[in-house]
Amino acid sequence: MAAARRLEGRIAYVLGGGSDGPARPGEALPMGNGRAIALRLAAEGATVVVGDKVLARAEATVAHLDGPGLAVEVDAADPASCRAAVTAAIEHGAGRLDVVVCNVGLSGREPLKVQSLEDWDLASDVNVRSHWLTAQAALGPMLAQRSGAFAFVGSTAGVYSSRRSLSYEATKAAQLAVMRHVAVRYADRGIRSNAVVLGNIDSALVRREFGDAPGAARAAVVPMGREGRPEEAAGAVAFLVSDDAGYVTGQSLLVDGGVSAAWPVPPVVS
Ligand SMILES: NC(=O)c1ccc[n+]([C@@H]2O[C@H](COP(=O)([O-])OP(=O)(O)OC[C@H]3O[C@@H](n4cnc5c(N)ncnc54)[C@H](O)[C@@H]3O)[C@@H](O)[C@H]2O)c1
Questions:
Q1: Could you give the number of structural domains in the chain?
Q2: What is the pTM of this model?
Q3: Is there a domain that residue 43 lies in?
Q4: 107 CA from centroid of ligand 1 (Å)
Q5: Which atom of ligand 1 is nearest to the CA of 77?
Q6: 7, 135, 240 from 186: Cα distances, Å
Q7: Which residue range forms the structural domain that includes residue 108?
Q8: What is the Å distance from ligand 1's center to 243 Cα?
Q9: Which residues does a 6 A CB cutoff place in the pocket of ligand 1?
């Protein structure tokens, strides 16, 4: 189905728009959430600036955009780099910036007992600090335009404990606080801010961390009986940053196949 052209003429910046996991069998381009979001925003008419720590990954995304784009190198752990990438996006848009998607995020593996300072600090820098710095740098043109939309790519681990990584859970919760602050503080100046809170997504990130095996165990806890796809995360983001969500701000849209709606009992066989 062809995407609606809801973002025609808009300038979008995606932080973490490459992908570094293995491709699915038959997949031409490894698909992660950030990459799928960049492709979807372009398919809806936006000019997309793709930022990634590895320039070649951003370039691979831009090469597949359905429309114009720009690849920029950015290290989310480096504040100056975060700001410079937003400046590059604004220059590419000749002073405009309409959509900013803060996707970059490191998952981590350390529960409380072994949580290290290094892991905590890196997760904090990449998963939260880079997002507020990016939002702050993007605010200037959005305030001048009196319009703009932010989307933050969150995780259910920021709302419910996954028992896995303390730094991931804590930083993903803090990310939602940043999202809400931006929403409430600038709501009266035409700026909206929302998050997609993702459950199990069959992305390059998950294949990298858990291997290529089909996620049967992960899918078993999902009422829909399957993992989500990066393209489905992208569809939710495209809605939130479009005018179709014109009266939606400060919200966390759960994209989890129904996991968060379910009481944890074994599935009923019907
Ligand atoms: N896949 C899932 O099941 C799932 C679930 C919940 C939330 N998420 C969220 O999705 C987001 C990431 O998804 P993805 O599929 O795009 O991941 P991904 O691993 O494919 O990463 C996207 C890109 O981020 C880049 N990157 C890594 N560190 C960086 C840094 N310091 N600076 C700039 N770029 C950097 C990588 O080079 C990669 O190209 C995260 O915010 C994660 O929390 C994923």
A1: 1
A2: 0.97
A3: yes
A4: 8
A5: 31
A6: 21, 11, 16
A7: 11-260
A8: 26
A9: 16, 18-21, 32-34, 52-54, 57, 74-77, 103-105, 126, 153, 155, 198, 200-201, 203-206
pLDDT digits (tens, 9 = 90+) for 215-245: 778 888 899 999 999 999 999 999 999 999 9
CA–CA dist 76, 72 (Å, integer): 12
Q: In whole angstroms, how far apart are CA 70 and each of 50, 54, 93, 166, 198?
A: 6, 14, 10, 35, 26
The per-residue pLDDT for range 43-62, each reduced to its tens digit, is: 999 999 999 999 999 999 99
Residue nearest to atom 33 of ligand 1 (CA): 53
Spacing of C-alpha 5 from chain mean position: 20
The CATH number assigned to the domain holding 229 equals 3.40.50.720
CB 223 within 8 A of CB 268: no
Residue 266 Cα to ligand 1 middle (Å): 31
Active site residue 168: yes
Residue 191's contacts (CB-CB under 8 Å, 6 or more residues apart) are: 139, 142, 143, 147, 148, 149, 150, 182, 183
Domain assignment present for 1: no
Residue 2: inside a domain, yes or no?
no
Burial of 135 (C-beta count, 10 Å sphere; 0-12/13-18/19+): buried
Residue nearest to ligand 1 atom 3, measured at CA: 201
